[in-house]
Every structure is written in C-alpha cells, then in structure tokens.
Amino acid sequence: MNWIEPDWPAPASVRALSTTRDEGVSEGVFRGLNLGAHVGDDAVKVEANRTLLQQVAEIPGRLNWLNQVHGTAVHPVSNQYESAPEADAACAHEAGLACIVMTADCLPVLFCDRAGTRVAAAHAGWRGLQAGVLEASLAAMGGDPADILAWLGPAIGPEAFEVGGEVREAFMAEQAEAAAAFKPSPNEGKWLADIYRLARLRLARAGVSAVYGGEYCTHGDGERFYSYRRDGQTGRMASLIWLAE
C-alpha cells in the first residue's frame, strides 16, 4: 500500500501517514482505497478499505472518524464515543489513539510536539483555514507553539485552486501578507490560491516555525489522488497521526 509518510524530524514515538488511492476494493469513480463513507460508495467496500488500512498500517485501537463540516471544532480522541463527532480536527495526548481527517483537495495538517507526547490532525479547506482550524488545533494540543512540528499533506496545488475575490479578501482582512498567496486567474474576477502558503502564514503567525510538506497537487495527479474539484463525485483519502504504544 503506497501511502505517504511525512518527511519531518518527528520523534520515534510518532506514527503518521497520508493514504493515496492505491490498493483498496472500491470501483468506478471511487476506484482504489476510498475511505469516505459519505460520498456514495458501497458501504461494504468502504468498510473493507478501512479495515485493510488499519491492518496494513498497524493502526492501534479503533479508527476515530470525524463528521467534517469545514469548521474549527477540535475533538479530543478517545475510544468511548459511538458515532463520528462533528469536528474538523482531532487531538490526542495518549498513545494508541489515532487522529484522522479525510480530504480530496482540502489541506490535511498533521501536528506533533518535539517530545512525542501530543499529536493532532486538522482538515483545512479554505473556510476552515480562514476561520482558524489550525490555531484551534494548536490550542487543543496545549504547550508552546514553538515546540510543535507541522506537516502539510496532499492538497490542491496553487495552479489549480481557483477562488472568488471574496476568499482573497477574507484572508487579507485578517493577515495582509496573505495577498502574496493569490495571483490572478485567467478567468476574469477569479484568483488562484496557494493553500499551502496560506497555511504556512497562519502557522507562522501562531508561532509554529517548523513546517514541512506542501509539495503535492491532488488535482493534477488522478492516478494517485482523489480530487473533488477535478472529478466531482469521488473518494476520500485519509491523513492519520498517533503515538506508538
């Protein structure tokens, strides 16, 4: 199974990965390792994909999926709840509890502290990113942001992420430097946004200087990645992080 492992100096106790659409049993527009149960794929196939991922990656405990709504809520992971909580980030301070977010163009961000005692995962589409989901994740982790490592997983690249002027204005209203993350699109009135750069700006403002990743484009690589912008109905990848037991 060809998942992506973060290239970052995380401590040995931290396990992290982002899946691709490689392997899996889903078919048609969901071909591959679709992990999204809310996108119209056969539920039996989705569950088989999730089981395969857990077994091959040796993920401990239960898989704690979220009901993502493009917000800023952060869920403290446990093995106690029965249904997926409504949140766009998860954090864990104990070993054996995996934080998981699903994406198909939105930006997954994984966090750990340098001591390897705290982890978090955030789903950052432009709405959640602008509203502060990364800052909320850092607050839930606790401690000094300067002690945090962040990894930016596969997301839509800056040459493909077209947005309206209101998106640019919303980011610039909070952080003037965000203007550098937008360039005019060939389509009049539209802009091409660099979500990786926007995330780096937000993290830097929050005090996180150790930021890695950010080199993929889900939209441009249909063999490897699902992309909602490219295909409409499609599957979902997952980015996960946990502390080894």
TrEMBL record:
Coiled coil: none annotated. Keywords: Hydrolase, Metal-binding, Transferase, Zinc. Belongs to the purine nucleoside phosphorylase YfiH/LACC1 family. It comes from Aeromonas eucrenophila. It holds the Pfam family Cu-oxidase_4. It catalyses: inosine + phosphate = alpha-D-ribose 1-phosphate + hypoxanthine; adenosine + phosphate = alpha-D-ribose 1-phosphate + adenine; S-methyl-5'-thioadenosine + phosphate = 5-(methylsulfanyl)-alpha-D-ribose 1-phosphate + adenine; adenosine + H2O + H(+) = inosine + NH4(+). This is Purine nucleoside phosphorylase. InterPro entries: Cu_polyphenol_OxRdtase (IPR003730), Cu_polyphenol_OxRdtase_sf (IPR038371), Cytotoxic_necrot_fac-like_cat (IPR011324).
